Amino acid sequence: MRPVHYLLALLVVVLWGVNFIFIDFGLRDWPPLLLVAARFTVVVIPAILFVRFPRGSFGRILLIGVFMSAGQFGLLYTSLFLGLPVGLSSIILQIQAAFTVLVAALALREIPNRRQIIGILIGVAGLAVIGLSLQASIPVVAFVVCLGAALSWAIGNVIARGVKPGISGLQMTVWSGLVVPLPMLGLSLLIDGPAEVVRSLAHPTWGVLASVVYTAGVASLIGYVIWNSLLARFPASQVAPFTLLVPPVGVGAAWLVLGDRPTVPELIGGALLILGVAVTTGVHRTIARGIRGVPRRRRRDVVARETPADAVAGVSGGP
Predict the structure, then answer these.
(1) 176 has pLDDT over 60
(2) How many CB atoms are closer than 10 A to CB 230?
(3) Helices (H), the chain
(4) Among 312, 20, 14, 279, which residue's Cα sits nearest to residue 153?
(5) Terminal CA-to-CA distance of the chain, rounded, Å?
(6) pTM of the predicted structure, to 2 decimals
(7) How far apart are CA 275 and CA 314, in angstroms?
């Protein structure tokens, strides 16, 4: 990778990390599920007119939309609405990598290797530190709902394993979004009530507009275009490690913009969780090889040793 490619990868990290701030802006004025419906309406329209139809895997992609799009974001937005701090949510969500390995073991009978088991245990230890140190102002239910979002993302990752080769992440993002707007709108009508939904739709604030435009247009579409272009040119082992920088960016952005200052136990738990993700996905070995320098003749061997579970769990995009 040349310096410009590293800069592009870092740009995506920043776009995805700052994304949590814009979600918070929207949740100040609109109910969470209605905001999710609006986000994916903008993702789908008019992009669906320009993004190639995913032939051969459309049914599976719609199922991905149920878990990776509707389930993940519906639960994530709800956890933030219930009071989970923005920075903390960006950390907790990363346990999806460990959940992906566990779901693959249950659904596909892929037995985790020793490294993955160690990584999962480290990640769970980090979650335990965060959960046991939650401040009184943070509802436990918000923490649990965010874990549900991570689990839904993991299920979507495993379903994505069966997608026909050649279908890009951008295609999956746009076409899987078809199943999100109407169900989320229906749930919002049921949970929040027609009066609240009508009031919100009749009074879109600048915060809501900024949230929808950024999360849909910048984080989802622009972020995925750049990310998938990098994945198309370079091995996943070179690109995937950058995803570990998303939580620190999310925490830093929340601290600077929202005054959402993490506690010491949250930072310790977050560091353990990110380390667990790195070990589970094998990213820690990639980083170590990069520091030591891998001989060019071994590069193909390194890429060949990447397992499918490593690739899915390590390359999943940001929220």
Answers:
(1) yes
(2) 18
(3) 3-27, 32-44, 58-64, 72-81, 86-92, 96-108, 114-132, 140-160, 169-176, 181-192, 194-202, 206-212, 223-233, 236-239, 246-253, 264-281, 283-292, 299-304, 308-315
(4) 312
(5) 25
(6) 0.86
(7) 13
- The pLDDT of residue 307 is 42
Highest mean pLDDT among 196-210, 221-235, 238-252: 196-210
In single-letter form, the type of residue at position 22 comes to: F
**pLDDT at 78 exceeding the cut of 50:** yes
Instruction: Answer whether 207's CB lies under 8 Å from 26's CB.
Output: yes
Asked if 279 contacts 100 with a C-beta cutoff of 8 angstroms, the reply is no
For the chain, what's the residue count? 319
R_g of the chain, CA atoms, integer Å: 19
* Tokens 């990640």 found at: 123
Amino acid identity, position 265: P
Farthest-apart Cα atoms in the chain, separation: 65
The single-letter code of the amino acid at 94 is: Q
Look at residues 79, 18, 10 and name the one whose alpha carbon lies nearest to residue 210: 18
pLDDT reading at 299 higher than 70 = no
Q: Please identify which residue in the block is written with the tokens 């739709």.
A: 201
Q: How far is CA 283 from CA 123, 207, 243, 264, in A?
A: 14, 36, 10, 25
CA distance 301 to 298: 5
The CB-side HSE value for 281 (13 A sphere, CA atoms) comes to 33
Cβ atoms < 10 Å from Cβ of 296: 7
Token pair 């990447």 in the structure block, residue? 306
Token readout for 197 is 């939904």
State whether residue 256 is helix, strand or coil.
Answer: helix
Which residue shows structure tokens 């991905």? 64
